[in-house]
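Form P-L/3: holo structure prediction, ligand HDE.
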Amino acid sequence: MSDRDDAKHEQLERFRSDHRDAVLTTQQGVRVGHTDDSLTAGTRGPTLLEDFHAREKITHFDHERIPERVVHARGAGAYGYFEAYDDTLSAHTTAEFLTSGEKIPVFVRFSTVAGSRGSADTVRDVRGFATKFYTRQGNYDLVGNNMPVFFIQDGIKFPDFVHAVKPEPPNEIPQAQSAHDTFWDFVSLQPESLHMVMWLMSDRALPRSYRMMQGFGVHTFRLVNAEGRGTFVKFHWKPVLGTHSLIWDECQKIAGKDPDFNRRDLWDAIESGQYPEWELGVQLVAEDAEHDFDFDLLDPTKIIPEEQVPVQPVGRMVLDRNPDNFFAETEQIAFHTANVVPGIDFTNDPLLQARNFSYLDTQLIRLGGPNFAQLPVNRPIADVATDQRDGYGQQTVHKGQTSYFRNSLGGGCPAIADRGVFRHYTEAVDGRKIRERSPSFKDFYSQATLFWNSMTDVERQHIVAAFRFELGKVTDRSIRARTVEHLGRIDNDLAARVAAGIGVEAPDGAGGNHGRRSPALSQLGQPNLSPSGRKVAVLAADGVDTIGIRSLVEQLGAAEVVAEVLAPSDGELAPGGAGDPLPADRQLSTMASVLYDAVVVACGPDSVERLRADGMAVHFVAEAYKHLKPVAAFGTGLDLLRQAGVPDELAESTEPFVAGGVVTTTAAADELPDAFAAHLLTQLAGHRVWHRDTEAIPA
Ligand code: HDE
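OUTPUT (holo model):
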């Protein structure tokens, strides 16, 4: 973990408590000499009311839970910093953190949306990507998601939407899933949701890692400069490791094998010094260009295609410190879209306007009163001086006679500032009071079509499979049919392919498709050529070639790839020939292929014989192959690939050979060529071997 110091870190230090070298006391500081037995009348008699220690201990325990977030309950967070590249944005905003180049402390919380606090990480869902910037001008919260649009246009529908996606009321089933009747009932009756539904059915909903996920502010916000001029802005986070996803079958299995998969990945990466990094980009639109688009900039179900308004990089964010305490920090952090600093303002996006109400309100119930901004993680590093007083959990001892404005008794303080204040953008507003959606919000299909058109064939196959899975779980046939009818208005081929899998009629083909594409929308269209951040399993048993493994692990490590040696049992592996014993990192039965990005079978006749007799090892290889992962073997390790049914051609010489993402060489031990690791790294950088045909592989 980083030893970087910053103002937030220093502030938190005042609140940290470490019990090393401490003795047990009550909350009142009275030393406790015995905490295992209650005070009773006789050793077999009733517990006495006067046992203040037992009562305090149990009472505190009884009150340890707070309400979980009504959405985004499950999350993981980390500290880090943001730094602007330069001051180019100063023409558009007075927000210093976007222009100063200084390192600004941040806390980021990633989350799933629908599941409860204890649900699995790898469900099909949107991911939250919320950043709190502790700036000198006050806290700024960018509370975004990993998808750039939302399901609804107006916040008044949010309770309806959330009620529909959450587990169904009679039995609280299913947990953290959209694959059920009420979700599809809702979206099929609210076509404005279709664009986002396309994103949700895409691989974006299955991130390989929080470190490999884009983030979006979603709404159009406004930057405001020193002259008070506004510029529309959309915020984008782009991960340095590239945007990568899991495969749906992997996700479902990981949910059982390691429900903390994404949390753990973030934690481990930071602990090991592989600090995740994102670039912040902005799309800027001049005020007088507001109506230059074929959609409304205030409509949160629309993107501004990057080909139309390019994303300009403005800074980078690095996460380099894990929290000390999940509850105190990750659970108690309170984001609020209305936490803005001078130079950033809202627009009239009706979804954003509702959020500006909701986030403050929800913290009051969740964190138990109006003083939650005093919790250590929420405290600004900017000075705070309000006339607000009292309330549950007040931590500040306010001195002085006055807590009102204007006062003379307190010397007029806190005084009204004349510099650096937040000034609301002075927008001209005129209109009749009316409960009606603007006609400019009424196109529900064009951008869903744009998204579909922009996908590669593989991405389209995944989208079709996702619709078939989700709608296949819907018991009401009319909901299935209604959804497919909407899909027909997005694209006929999409609708026909989905319909064929779920036993409903395809629509009549009258849909049409505008044919436009936005290549930036495709994840696979922008390959990331670095293997960094991936995890490789090396299968081994007693008798393995430990020299070969050591050199491979070292080469992978140099490329920031974590390689772990998995063996049938823990402890040291006896070497097959020359070489020293090698400690196994993990016991095979505690892990699974779905927790790795690739598998390597090491050489060693005895080792491979043992693995061939172990069904888990054979399955490990077959499953990794089925999930389109690079598979590699050296020396006698090739025999395990054959036993697992890997159908591709394997090496016949020591020259490393690659076919269908399978990297092999007959070389053993000290003769393992460097090119073997190099080929494996190239395959890892490709993430998955998308064109491998694995339909018939049983795993
Ligand atoms: Fe949220 N949302 N939201 N949301 N949201 C919450 O706030 C809400 C929306 C997002 O890690 C809640 O503190 C309404 C869009 C994230 O702590 C709550 C509407 C986007 C997080 C709430 C939306 C988001 C939340 C629940 C429609 C992406 C987790 C607990 C008007 C741009 C923040 C809490 C964290 C959390 C309300 C729509 C992102 C109830 C009413 C759009 C990342 O206030």
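COMMENT: The chain has a mean pLDDT of 96.
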